Amino acid sequence: MKSWVLCFLLGAFTPSLIFSQGRTPRGTVSGTVVDADDKMPVMQATVQVLSPKDSTMIIGNITDLDGKFSLNAKLGKYLLKVSFVGYKPVFKDFEITRQKPKASVGNIELSSDAIMLEEAVIVAQAPEVTAVADTLVYNSSAYRVPEGSALEELVKKLPGAEIDDDGKITINGKEISKIMIDGKEFFADDPNIALKNLPVNIIDKLRAYDKQSDMAKATGIQDGEEETVLDLTVKPGMNKGWFGNADVAGGTQDRYSAKVLLNRFYGGNQFTVIGSSNNVNDNGFPGGGGGGGWRRQNGLNTIHMAGFNFATETEKWHNNGSVNFNLKNSDIRSKSASETFVSSSSSSFTNAMNIQDNKNLNLTADFRIEWNPDTMTMVLFRPRFQLGDTDNGTDSKTYTFNQDPVFSTDELINADDLTELVPEENIINTIIRNSLSRSNSLTHGASLMYNRRLGKAGRNITLRGYYNVTNSTSEQFSTSETNYFQKTPEEQLEILNRYISTPTKSYNYSARVSYSEPILKNMFLQFSYNFQYKRNTSDNSTYDMPEGWTVPQGIAGDINGTYNDDLSKSAAYDYYNHQVDVSYKWITQKSQFNLGVSLQPQNTKLDYKKGDLDTVSVRKVFNFTPTLDFRYKFSKTSQLRVDYRGRSSQPSMTDLLPIEDNTDPLNIKQGNPNLKPSFTNTLRVHYNTFNVDNQRGCMTYFTYNNTLNSISNRRTYDEKTGGYTTRPENINGNWNIFGMVGGNIALKNKKYTINTFTNTRYSNMVSYISSNEVTTNSDKNITKQLTLGERLRGTYRSDWWEVSLNGSINYTHSRNSYQESSNMDTYQFSYGASTNINLPWNMSISTDLSQNSRRGYTDASMNRDELLWNAQISQNFLKGNAATVSLQFYDILRNQSNISRVISAAMRSDTEYNAIYSYCMVHFIYRLNLFGGKQGGRPMGGPGFGPPGHGPGFGHRR
């Protein structure tokens, strides 16, 4: 597989790589556009080359993310015009001659236009999205969100953006790993802090791009280790003083919410303090982006958080960091019905009801300290500290059947006598379980990198060291009562009372040296060697607790359990890895080609003790990882990128041991000494283009994954107990393909826009399913699943009104090779409208209405329609609209439900959770704006900052 992928890519792109780019006889003019006050680059400023005779435009473009521009023109004298909304235009003469074909105008400083800021007669509509090279730039003012909204509500409206139930952000299929502000990390690796707490009204632009790794930034050579980030630009003027937000709310059903945000920005320095407390599952405005759809909220959550983030910079030092405290209490109640395929002709059916009371505390501190003693040297230090504590309790009832019980989970669980509903021969088991899990952990680590550029461009040497240490302990208390209906009366009842204690220690150390050397013009070779040592020790002690013992009693006082030597175990794991990387890079003005290989000899040792077993297992393997990355820029707003990566993964050492773990009698685990390593091929293609003149753009993304020798769990089903014996096995045939196309079209006067986002995914999922002791290839179950999705939104914006029509459809086609009765064709579709109206008297109204529907599910209760209506009315008051009172209504029609479905090669499951549905809240928001010097560079716009009676992107008419 890896060979044909490489051949395909090399064959396809070799002609492009050997294409000779001739020198153009035309000259160029280049420069950088910066803000006259803070000297920060101004991106997307309009740069035009004009004829000095009649001021007709010869050529034009916009500045890139660093405010830079470069334009081609014939030899001659010209007039350069640079402009941007909110700034005074700048004109500058320049000349291109044969003797000096490259004209540099240096830094062009734009000064704020005070008249425009105060009178603010702006009629142009800001484009929703533009593209600069491989960066998508979204204009905040082009998206109207309800008064007082947080960043999350704005992101939901971005074309191609999605936020799942766990807060994970994806834009055009790529996951956002960090959120940054003006190029600086904001609370490190937790984007949810920014999503839930940053108010939209401070944001000017959002940029989505692949951020260079620290290594690439230091060496100036791309290494393919980018991470996708969302970089926020605050509105001009806000980087010169204090600004903040305070939001307090109370509502029906004892709902409450409080947030406070205080910022101090000046120059390149940032200081932020955040605090919040709520019991509304961190909901933003009801309906979010107004696109409809099914939103799942698992349980009732109360969240308290506080944090501090800072970034400072001088000529030689660039420092930033954050400290974040989070406490989350969850009351989660769920009921589920699932079908697990156990053979080609039969399934097991499980109905369960769970009540969870969870408490999670987390304290995290991250810092980044960069020192540049001179232009050739960089030292980077990243320390990290994390403290965690959890306390999770669960009560559950689970019933398993060999035939579909037909009745609902509520009817089965609440039945006084189960056999009155279901024949006894169809009941496999019933389990009543109570458990408590406690754990705490302390983690500290750091990385230190030193890079030195050695004179010649591209020649670098880099040294890097890393360590991470984790100490953790966990305790589990549990009682369970299991009735086996298909066993003899003597074997039918099983009661297990257990206490398990597991202290764990983990150590991770590594050292790396890298060297890059330019070999020809624009060509580089890079070599690196990395040594890594990891050690993990755990000591699992299991005790059988006395009859009549309950979980709340714990192990206090004179309660003692009996040590279970057969189930207790200890393990010490030592891992040594040597990694040698060699890569070739070719970089030109328009293209970039990387080809690399990583060689990884590994030595692993496992010392394992369990009962009478005392063994030492040693494994030596050799991993091979090829990489290829090709990029081509057709223009500043159009780019193609293709990359391939292969990686091998080793099975865990415990999976390789010939042992059996029967701690849970219904989930017995076995090892497999014959497991092979798996190898995954990943191919990705990304293309984007954008026309600046008509504000129309298109983005496409494609990815293919194929895993050879995938490690799957072969599950052998026991028809008498309803339990499984699980053994890892290698299996082939697991692959998936994903593609998406997104478009943004601006119509007449840019007031009408259409956004479309189309995606498709095809998955071939393979697993072993059998009730036999020995499985063969005929026991493979193949689930083929095709999903098609389309989201369409049309928007009209005027200076006081915005209305959007939204529609989406998701179709799933699933075929199961084992049981045709499990085949499904399901649809989830929604359509609706949302509007934001700015009224006189500083009042605004926001509302959305959406119809959500499901079709094609076997369970009739899943095929339902929900009409959801949410609304908000807001009133601004005090000087400068510094305060807002808003009344929010969630699910006015009381139709919302909370059901989810999961499908895999081995099972399907439907689960319904408790959640917060219909309620209303009253918010009071106060905005603090204390700016130093002049009031910013561009119009503030947005709720709370614009002139009275108007929303984002336009101003006040006098």
Note down, in words, how this protein is organized.
This protein is mainly beta and 958 residues long. It has a 26-stranded antiparallel barrel. Strand 42 (801-816) and strand 43 (824-839) form a beta hairpin. The longest helix has 17 residues, at 2-18. The N and C termini lie far apart (68 Å).
Biggest β-sheet: count, sense, barrel? 26 strands, antiparallel, barrel
Query: What quaternary form is this?
Result: single chain
Radius of gyration, rounded?
31 Å
Mean pLDDT: 83
Can you tell me the residue ranges where pLDDT is under 50 for at least 5 consecutive residues? 1-24, 114-124, 283-294, 932-958
Q: What percentage of amino acids are in beta strands? A: over 45%
**Helix content class:** under 10%
Beta-strand segment tally:
49
Structural class: mainly beta
Q: Note the overall shape.
A: globular
Amino-to-carboxy terminus distance: 68 Å
Number of helices, counting only DSSP H or I runs of 4 residues or more: 7
Write a brief caption for the model.
With 958 residues, the protein is mostly beta strands. It is built from seven helices and 49 strands.
